[in-house]
Design brief:
about 600 residues; 4-stranded mixed β-sheet
């Protein structure tokens, strides 16, 4: 796992649904700087390749500092272990085996013999030591991955040492149930290519590593250990990856894997244009959103593709308010204090939850091809707490929403507009990313639903990179319609979002390592209780007791509503029939076993 967003569209964590509104006549106008995708297929007729789509350029080629979901790292890097995309079970990766001591505080990984980097240099235990000690655990290097290595409430981290030429040992300060999965699946990086940049500093005293391997770097200089390596990057057009000739996997007959020689990632921001490109045969795979499902299903045979159904997507759609009471460096509150008082009133959040018609959203936006979501845990997770088992839910009850507001001291004027205790009109801005049509549609409906209880929500539709900046850096936002990955195999995988000091704790984002304290930042009692529960869950090895711990976490989220959940789409993926050995699941997506896939000969 490369938290929080391991792969680029349209792979497993493919982000996210597609729209269907642009007239087909536009297809004749679509070009990519004079080079049509079909030309790639003509030019590369002798090369087996996949042509896929991504809605955004990669933000960096440095996986350690990356915070964008639109990266190429799932193709370029592997960890000591990997996850089976069908079962979620851990499997050997760069390490051929691993052992856990009886006290569960020492984990020893044994590397495969003869591993190499994509430039042909040996991959050794020293690279593993370098990756963890000088990158993930380096306080001078900001990385979301560090959250996954923090052990317990003390904030301690594991130590790592070399045992011999093939074995590396991690020692934990206390038992930590998620460690093998969390740490074992992090990408390993090359010491020989990056050591110098970590040791050297820029004019501000920061490691030069922070600006190393940006998107302006020659792609062929990027060194990885995964099935592919970068060949070429043309901004706003495409990323081209070629098979890594030094990749370690081979099949039973000794043939090198992966079999597919090239992957072309076309940068196509509009989901409508992605749909057009797929229907014209220019893309080999496409995530199918509900509004496009009927059309694509009718064309399935003629288009020579199969639409796979993985069930509910293991992700969460939500709407939440900025609960941050802190001020920026200039002393200005991140959130208008008038609005902050509304957002931090539980009755207000409950009223908004009751005012959103999620069944209507499921029917109109998702065409019935989805499920109303109630929990931060994926329904596929063994830790999921269902409404039938006692999880509080918020069905559509606008009258109850109004009564909650009135009981909390809000009032209505003669135009049925909601006013607060001091007569201020209740009006705020709702942030949503532009490249996800279904999310924008959901925001539009939420705006309409809230108007029925007198609340005015103004939409702010921005690119995702700008959204991330607002959420995690400037913190200047009111309300956000967003999404994040749901826990499936291991609840701790969503720790970075729920932990009060987490790098993605966006609804009350605190100072991050290396940042000065935030004046006025407060952590609520229920946030502290969630911290306590997660810290208890990582120490508990008894499955039933862990289940009880995470049940209570889900109950608190339902009671306090830091975010409230919307509709989770069914996971449909269309894949060309010429691509053989597809093993699709909602957990792994269509390409999780990329090394095994083949392109059928015509």
């Amino acid at each position: 796992m490369n938290p929080p967003f391991p792969k680029l569209l349209p792979l497993q964590q493919v982000l996210r649904p597609l729209g269907l509104t642009v007239a087909l006549v536009l297809s004749c106008l679509l070009t990519l700087t004079g080079c049509h995708p079909n030309q790639f297929k003509t030019q590369a007729a002798q090369v087996s390749q996949l042509v896929l789509a991504t809605p955004s350029d990669p933000a960096t080629f440095n996986t350690i500092v990356n915070t964008s979901p639109f990266g190429v790292f799932g193709y370029l890097y592997e960890g000591l272990l990997s996850e089976n995309g069908m079962t979620g079970e851990l499997e050997p990766g760069l390490a051929e085996s691993w052992d856990i001591s009886s006290d569960r505080q020492q984990i020893t990984f044994t590397l495969r013999d003869g591993l190499k980097w994509s430039d042909g240099e040996p991959l050794t235990v020293d690279d593993v030591i370098f990756t963890y000690q000088q990158l993930y655990l380096n306080p001078k290097i900001p990385t979301v991955s560090r959250d996954f290595l923090q052990i317990g409430s003390t904030g301690k981290y594991p130590s790592v040492r070399k045992l011999d030429q093939r074995r590396v040992e991690f020692t934990l300060p206390e038992p930590f149930a998620p460690f093998v999965r969390s740490a074992g699946t992090l990408a390993i990086l090359p010491a020989h290519a990056l050591q110098e940049s970590v040791e050297a500093t820029d004019s501000n005293g920061n490691p030069q590593f922070l600006s190393t391997w940006g998107t302006d770097t020659n792609p062929q200089e990027i060194v990885g250990n995964g099935p592919y390596r970068l060949e070429k990057y043309t901004p706003a057009e495409r990323v081209i990856l070629q098979r890594n000739p030094y990749y370690w996997r081979v099949d039973a007959q000794g043939n090198p894997q992966p079999y597919i020689q090239r992957i072309v990632l076309q940068v196509i921001q509009s989901s409508d244009n992605q749909l057009i490109r797929f229907r014209s045969g220019e893309l080999d795979s496409l995530r199918v959103n509900p509004e496009a499902f009927g059309l694509l299903k009718r064309e399935e045979k003629r288009g020579k593709y199969t639409i796979y159904n993985g069930g509910p997507m293991p992700g969460i759609r939500f709407v939440g308010f900025n609960l941050n009471k802190a001020r920026n460096a200039q002393g200005k509150p991140f959130v208008d204090p008038i609005k902050s008082r509304w957002f931090n009133t539980l009755a207000f959040r409950q009223a908004v939850a009751y005012a959103i018609d999620r069944e209507k959203m499921k029917t109109n936006i998702y065409r019935g091809l989805g499920e109303v979501q109630h929990s931060p845990m994926a329904v596929q997770s063994p830790y999921y707490l269902s409404p039938e088992d006692g999880l509080k839910v918020y069905n559509y009850e606008p009258q109850k929403a109004k009564q909650l507001l009135l009981d909390a001291g809000f009032k209505y004027n003669s135009q049925n507009q909601l006013l607060d205790w001091d007569g201020n009109r209740v009006q705020f801005t709702m942030l949503v990313k532009s490249d996800d049509k279904s999310r924008v549609d959901a925001a539009v409906q939420i705006k309409q639903d809230l108007s029925q209880i007198g609340i005015e929500a103004d939409l702010q539709v921005l690119s995702f990179n700008l959204v991330l900046r607002k959420l995690l850096s400037t913190r200047d936002w009111d309300c956000y319609v967003g999404a994040f990955g749901a826990a499936v195999s291991e609840p701790h995988s969503i720790f970075f979002f729920w932990y009060s000091g987490g790098s993605f704790h966006q609804f009350n984002q605190g100072p991050q390592p290396g940042q000065p304290p935030l004046e006025g930042w407060e952590v609520s009692d229920w946030e502290q209780e969630i911290d306590r529960l997660f810290n208890a869950g990582i120490k508990e090895l008894d499955q039933s007791k862990r289940k009880a711990i995470y049940d209570r976490f889900q109950e608190i989220v339902a009671e306090e509503l830091p975010v409230f959940f919307l509709v989770n789409s069914l996971d449909f993926q269309a894949v060309r029939d010429r691509i053989e050995n597809i093993k699709f699941s909602s957990l792994g997506g269509p390409l999780w076993n990329i090394d095994e896939l083949r392109i059928a000969e015509n």
